[in-house]
């Protein structure tokens, strides 16, 4: 029996894709290996948001090929969609499958024949919507993997110095992202997973100047509400207590389905038509955080008291260069409205430093802005040029050392904010879901506010919602007691 391992990179939406792919492979008769050493096939479900994400994939391919030379490697996901010609020379890689054909991986690995007559060393691009049986075969050097750009902006093929090229060309399946849906149901068995991610939206129709995601995931597409409700009910029946609603641009949910379908309306339906104990919203853009949504989270005990609202920069000049669709003051209005309605809400954001042409003055403005708002955590990362995006062609790139120093400054700011937030929760009761994780022998739980709580005396199994009394805070954790 063919064995496999799936290794996921990047966002929660990609994690959801990986979980669905795993289920498809198991249903197709493959068996999950206990480790890479025993695996016949390694599936790398990649991210390409930053150069560091690309480098992580390259390093892992080298490691797998060195550890298990007979293992066939399939690279899929966003990196495969963006730059298949970078990946094909890597030793050990047998298949490169873009997001356009990720749904066909199970067939590819189990058919025993080339998928729909594919030949090694070609990229297959669908000739049009709905014409799945008619494929145009284009040689790899002739096609751009990302947005339509001139040849000078195309990712170039290269061979890492530590590897020799493949002696046999990998099979490549990369085409345009269709408007069709290929979301598989969330697996109802997930080993140690206690908080399944339900991906209800994919793609993005925005065009932030730094972001490659619209090119590798396509335009915004939504899972119809009836399917969402069906999957939530299945997860509830399987015993899950919390689900995480996820998407690439979650607030755009429903815009492709009709004027009456909205993310807010979907939340109301989930709460009305299912009995799932807790619903957590994944990342949502600031302009989609409406007063009605804030009121819903504030007034409904089944909604997690947590918002993740991407910021990117607190400087208006940089926001304009990023092609973001809000001003800093508009962002602040949303976050302060959350804090007013939900005083103990966990509030997080993504922040980018070192965007092209960002000056010391711009950075200082962003730092002051962040200091002024009640964030409880931040995801901070230096800007990384993505081939084919407008920002990558800017002549005003910021030195990497400068960007890393700016990131360090922001981490110091948020560290103090997080300590203050955790301290405010001491002596209070929080609702927390036990995880299949431990810290120093203590069961870990995740509070509604997106804070981990260690339960030293608890015998509760994973996937239990508990009322936890918080006794102290230390080293970024809460420590508490639950009568279980």
Question: Ends: how far apart?
Answer: 43 Å
With helices defined by DSSP (H or I, 4 residues minimum), what is the helix count? 13
Protein structure class: alpha/beta
Percent range for helical residues? Answer: 25-40%
Strand order within the widest sheet?
Answer: 2-1-3-4-5-8
Please tell me how large the radius of gyration is.
Answer: 23 Å
Poorly predicted tracts of residues: 113-164
Largest sheet: number of strands, sense, barrel closure:
6 strands, parallel
Whole-number average pLDDT? 87
The gross shape turns out to be globular
- Into which percentage range does the β-strand content fall? 15-25%
**How many E strands?**
21
How does this structure look, described?
- With 484 residues, the chain is an alpha/beta fold.
- Among the domains are: 3-173; 426-481, Beta Barrel (OB fold (Dihydrolipoamide Acetyltransferase, E2P)).
- The protein is built from 13 helices and 21 strands.
- The chain has helices at residues 12-27, 51-67, 78-82, 84-87, 105-110, 213-217, 225-237, 263-273, 291-299, 316-321, 328-341, 360-372, 400-425; strands spanning 3-8, 31-32, 41-46, 72-77, 93-98, 122-126, 135-139, 171-173, 197-199, 201-202, 221-222, 242-246, 278-281, 306-308, 346-353, 377-382, 429-439, 442-447, 452-455, 465-474, 477-481.
- It has a six-stranded parallel β-sheet, with helices on both faces. Strands 17-18-19-21-20 form a five-stranded mixed beta barrel. It has a three-stranded parallel β-sheet with strand order 9-12-13.
- Helix 12 links the parallel strand 15 (346-353) and strand 16 (377-382).
- The protein is globular, with a radius of gyration of 23 Å.
- The model is unreliable at 113-164 (pLDDT under 50).
């Amino acid at each position: 029996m063919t064995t496999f391992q799936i290794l996921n990179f990047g966002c929660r939406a990609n994690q959801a894709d990986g979980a669905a792919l795993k289920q498809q492979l198991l249903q197709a008769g493959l068996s999950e290996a206990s480790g890479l050493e025993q695996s016949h096939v390694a599936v790398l479900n990649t991210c390409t948001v930053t150069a560091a994400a690309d480098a992580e994939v390259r390093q892992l391919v080298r490691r797998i090929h060195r550890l298990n030379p007979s293992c066939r490697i399939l690279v899929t996901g966003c990196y495969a969609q963006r730059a298949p010609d970078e990946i094909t020379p890597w030793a050990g890689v047998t298949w490169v499958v873009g997001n356009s054909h990720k749904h066909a991986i199970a067939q590819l690995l189990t058919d025993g024949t080339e998928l729909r007559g594919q030949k090694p060393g070609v990229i297959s691009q669908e000739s049009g919507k709905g014409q799945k049986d008619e494929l145009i075969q284009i040689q790899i050097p002739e096609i751009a993997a990302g947005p339509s750009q001139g040849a000078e902006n195309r990712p170039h093929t290269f061979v890492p110095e530590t590897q020799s090229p493949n002696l046999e060309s990998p099979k490549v399946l990369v085409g345009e992202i269709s408007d069709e849906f290929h979301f598989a149901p969330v697996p109802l068995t997930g080993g140690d997973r206690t908080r399944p991610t339900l991906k209800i939206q994919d793609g993005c129709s925005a065009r932030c100047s730094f972001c490659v995601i619209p090119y590798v995931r396509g335009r915004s597409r939504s899972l119809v509400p009836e399917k969402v409700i069906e999957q939530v009910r299945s997860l509830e029946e399987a015993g899950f207590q919390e689900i995480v609603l996820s998407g690439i641009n979650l607030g755009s949910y429903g815009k492709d389905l009709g004027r009456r379908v909205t993310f807010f309306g979907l939340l109301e339906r989930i709460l009305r038509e299912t009995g799932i104990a807790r619903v957590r919203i994944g990342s949502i853009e600031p302009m989609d955080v409406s007063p009605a949504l804030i009121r819903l989270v504030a007034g409904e005990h089944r909604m997690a008291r947590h918002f993740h609202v991407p910021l990117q920069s607190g400087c208006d000049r940089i926001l304009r260069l990023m092609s973001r669709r809000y001003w800093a003051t508009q962002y602040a209005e949303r976050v302060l409205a959350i804090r007013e309605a939900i005083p103990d809400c966990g509030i997080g954001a993504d922040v980018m430093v070192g965007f092209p042409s960002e000056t010391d003055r711009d950075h200082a403005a962003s730092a002051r802005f962040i200091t002024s708002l009640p964030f409880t955590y931040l995801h901070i990362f230096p800007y990384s040029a993505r081939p084919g995006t407008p920002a990558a062609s800017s002549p005003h790139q910021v030195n990497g050392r400068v960007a890393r120093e700016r990131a360090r400054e922001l981490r110091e700011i948020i560290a103090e904010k997080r300590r203050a937030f955790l301290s405010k929760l001491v002596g209070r009761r929080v609702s927390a879901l036990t995880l299949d994780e431990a810290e120093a022998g203590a069961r870990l739980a995740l509070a509604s506010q997106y804070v981990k709580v260690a339960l030293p005396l608890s015998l509760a199994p994973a996937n239990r919602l508990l009322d936890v009394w918080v006794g102290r805070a230390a080293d970024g954790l809460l420590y508490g007691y639950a009568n279980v």
